[in-house]
Amino acid sequence: xxxxxxxxxxxxxxxxxxxxxxxxxxxxxxxxxxxxxxxxxxxxxxxxxxxxxxxxxxxxxxxxxxxxxxxxxxxxxxxxxxxxxxxxxxxxxxxxxxxxxxxxxxxxxxxxxxxxxxxxxxxxxxxxxxxxxxxxxxxxxxxxxxxxxxxxxxxxxxxxxxxx
Length: 164
Prior knowledge:
Elements (H helix, E strand, L loop, with lengths): L2 E10 L6 E7 L4 E6 L2 H11 L9 H11 L3 E11 L2 E10 L2 E7 L1 H11 L3 E3 L1 H4 L3 E2 L8 H14 L11
Parallel strand pairs: 4-7
Antiparallel strand pairs: 1-2, 1-7, 2-3, 3-8, 4-5, 5-6
């Protein structure tokens, strides 16, 4: 059964300085770090920080395109991890027609945030989630510190093993 996750924030891998999107479950018990590219991280941060851009970014254009052709994003699914690479799908609807498209998780997350679509994660991917200990997500700075602390507790072998 798929598990709904929320974007807790974007942080940086202390070893490689690569951006990491941190997903957390609604119960605030598990976190799933997903390494992403700098541009994709920026596309996610723009939404999280409610920044207004002078011109539409790529994911804004994608949302507008979907809306203009009558397609809605019902959810995104982070479906698998193979050879240290995450795989995701966009689940789309147009009238009674339903279809899925392959996507990088970072692009799927950036689009889901813009479309206010749920971010769902498969049980196989949830096996890679880490326990969260007493993170209060309402206190932003403490939350960032806890995420950094969680990443520091990870086995260094896990850093940089996931590919975009």
